[in-house]
Prior knowledge:
Strand content of chain C: under 5%
CATH topology of chain C: ABC transporter involved in vitamin B12 uptake, BtuC
CATH class of the largest domain in chain A: Alpha Beta
CATH class of chain C: Mainly Alpha
CATH topology of the largest domain in chain A: Rossmann fold
Number of domains of chain C: 1
Shape of chain A: globular
CATH architecture of chain C: Orthogonal Bundle
Number of strands of chain C: 2
Distance between the termini of chain A: 64 Å
Oligomer: heterotrimer
Amino acid sequence: MKTRNLLIVALVIGMLAVAFGGPAVAAPAFRIAIVMPSAKTDMAFSQSMYDALKALQKEMGGESALQIAYSEDMFKVPDAAAAIRDYAGQGFNIVLAHGSQYGSSVQEIAKDFPKTAFAWGTHVDTFGLPNVLAYTAAAEQGGYVNGVLAAKLTKTKVIGVTGPVEIGDAKTYISGFTQGVASVDPSIRVSKTWTGSFSDVALMAEAAKTQIAAGADALTGSSQSVVGSIGAAKAAKGKVLWFGTQQNQAPLAPELVVASQQYDWMGVLRAMIKNYKAGKLGGETYVAELKNGGLKIVYNPSFKLPDAVKKAGDKVIADITSGTLKIKP
Amino acid sequence: MSSHKIGGTSEVRHRLTFDWKDVGLRVALPLMAMLAAMLIGAAMLLLLKANALHAYAALLAGAFGSVYGFTQSLVKATPLLLVGLGICISFRASVINIGGEGQIIAGALMATWFSLAFRTWPGWMLLPATMTMGFLAGAAWGFIPGILKARLSVNEILSTVMMNAIGIQLMNFLLRGPLIDPAGVRAGTFLHQSERLPEQVWLPRLVPQTLLHAGAIIAVLLAIAVYIFLWRTTIGYRIRAVGLNRDASRYSGINVPLYQTLSLTLAGGFAGLAGVVEVIGVQHRLLEGITSGYGFSGIVAALFGGLHPLGTIPASWLFGSLLVGADKMQRAVQVPSALIDTVLGLVVMFVVGSALLSRRWAARRALTASGS
Amino acid sequence: MADPTIFTVPATIGILSSAVRLATPYLFAAVGEAICQSSGVLNLGVDGIMLLGAYAGFFVTLSTGSLWLGVLAAMVVGLLMGLLMSVISVSLKAEQGISGIGLYMFGLGLSSLLFKVTVGTVKTVVGFQPVKIPILGDIPILGEILFQHSLAVYAAFLVVPLAWWFLDKTTWGLKIKAVGHTPAAADSLGVSVLRVRYASVCLGAVLAGLAGASLSLAMVNLFQENLTAGMGFIAVALVYFGGWRPVAIMGGALLFSFMNALQLWMQVLAVKIPSDIAVMLPYVLTIAVLAVAHNHEREPISLNKPFERGEH
């Protein structure tokens, strides 16, 4: 009983301290909060942004220069909305709503916090609000490159695509991928499986196994639950290849990842901070592309890619970068 | 054996006539169970090298330290209370309704479809009609397992779990096709959400700049109504009698299957209403994950409230505060939110575990009271 | 269904072989739950136990490199969770449906938390590899469907006859059933209701732990938060589906996985059917079977009823 009373007293004091005292104010660091739908270490969408923030923090000089707060696994939009509102209320300079599903929440909350910059993606719409930024990735570009590489490497002429649902950058990535494959050989079949669930990894693994059993010898896929597919591809030892997106996925399976399209949000973040400091809180849309370095094709060094194939890949990258090749999303 | 029987029936009588003297114990035990779970949580925080005191202070500050946090707790408490009311009814009839999630979805889906389909109606017509339709949809989602239990003895725990899965898939299907926001289709994003609902169906906001909506008041009024229903009407009495002793009820001429079905149907209706207020009060559109797990946490809130509609009011508020505070705590000390889930799981287990003590105590009191 | 390609031999083999593989975790978990329920305890926390088992198996294998140590760890964690459930549901006589949900939330939360703290990122292990059984594996078609799987799959199908034998042919099994039907009578015959229920809950939980390990060490070879995605609840449903009989449960598990496998293959083969409708089928089918099967006649009479001895 005594400890309980002590604890209650301590809790009340602590609460008062937080409610009225507030944290000690040191040198004013730039403050960015991020709300992500999955784990910050998902090897995919969320990690791509969180890693960029961390890298930027290092570049700017550590926590005293850039303070980062995060909420991960906010796959429930209502909870994410509460987090976004809370960070805005705490006076963060930029609140990153990292998920296209957060758009309508941002649209509502941004009106209540005109001094906070809200960035959301991946999307292009700023709702005409002066403090909303949008960012997106031209995922179809890397998809096209991966598609060309996959088409050159497949022997069975069947390529499998797995994913939870066909939306957002998953959709544009697959669209680019399919076009890339067709540009090499239109007779190659790209078969797609959507499991309908972001969380059912076992079903995702089985989907990949199904693809492999149906003859696919090259696989790609989007979103965080693809780790299930990669596991299945690994189990099929040497029979299939993997093409990654969103993050460099080579560390997951060094023996079978050919290349990954990696999102690099550093440029987008730098531009955001620069504009914020210049007093421009929103109204802009940033697009990560191969051209501006927001997208990178990372070849897996442990995978021996035939020179001719690598050349073809590099040529496509160069063409997209120079603008001679345009990919429809 | 015989003493058990006497204890049993006096316990039955005791539970059929609500005794306010019990309130103290009913409140104290869950709170102590909760405290025990929180202490374990503190130990886990320390293992995570987080300052437990700071963390719990943030929890309290998050729930009570600001107008926004306070109102947000009430916003979360509203669906918890509504689901909890249904749980009170069904659990009182000894019908274990695990199907809150599916029933919330049924209500939310219906509210979304109905208010969009009849968007030309004026608010005074559209709002009550939408709420009624949502209630009915949830009720239908509860009726199916109810009638299956009554007529074919299908275990309701299983059928309600299955109905949850079906509800989720149905919502996913509708949000990807028939109900998808046309704006999202035009913009090429294909976000899985519905169109924004017509403004006249939105529940009025009670405090500006917050999400607190009139649904909170409706929920409290309904809690009083459910209390009157369960303790002051014949139907309510029979529902509780069926729950306390099925066989005795049958012998005394109560149509047991009918009241079991009714209780599950009503439970579904209230959970459906929770879905409605989430859609027309908070989100103003249907989103994936609209249930936020309220179908499960509503059970916990009702248990906290001693399966009593009025007790569920403060219990929901407490639980809503806990959820809001926990989110805040996650943000403040940056511990994984999974920690909160773990502690909540412990809270549930400890609270139901402590129920034995409460029962024994009540039975002993009843025995002494009856002079044996 | 119009597309004829789904009726080719390779596709059929693929579907059936997928179904056999996908049934693995359901078999472990559902057979375990059947034993647990036969003693009169409803454990709704199977999914939570599976998650912790999957995590423990994965983490131990990742750090020691030994698959068998991982399996052992999953069993130990299952045992501990079974003890926790027993204390609350058997000794403290809690409402079992609710304590099970608490156990589920606890397992879900703790496995995510531990994963975040100890592993954090996506990592894979080399799991149990498919082993072709000599002679049997060479049988055309049947060999491919049944005898070219990993050890986990064989073990799961071995658990089924073992559980049948255990429940129907051993004294222990009879004791468990007696306690599940008429605990007072069993008690008066000197059977310790408490001990039998503890043992049954724990045995069921160990199998649930194994179910988790079969996921993380044989099927996907990794761990992720909420890896099971509600499989444990399906497993509980399968127990009712099979009417507490291991062999019938196996039938249900195979049917359920067959529907899932079929749905995946239909997509790969571009059969036009909305995937959301397809994934609903297994659940609708389960309810339908529950409704027509009249399995409740087999239900342990004292299921979900804590045992109160006469005297206080």
